[in-house]
Amino acid sequence: MGKGLIAVIVLALIALVVFGQYIGVRNTLVTKNESVKSAWSEVDVQMQRRADLIPNLVETVKAYAKQEQTVFGDIAKARSALLSAGSPSEKIAANNQLDGALGRLLVIAERYPQLKSNENFMRLQDELAGTENRISVARKRYNDTLQDYNTYVQQFPASLFAGAAGFKPNDAYFKAAEGSREVPKVNFGTPGQQPAPQPAPAK
Question: Is pTM beyond 0.70 here?
Answer without folding.
Answer: yes
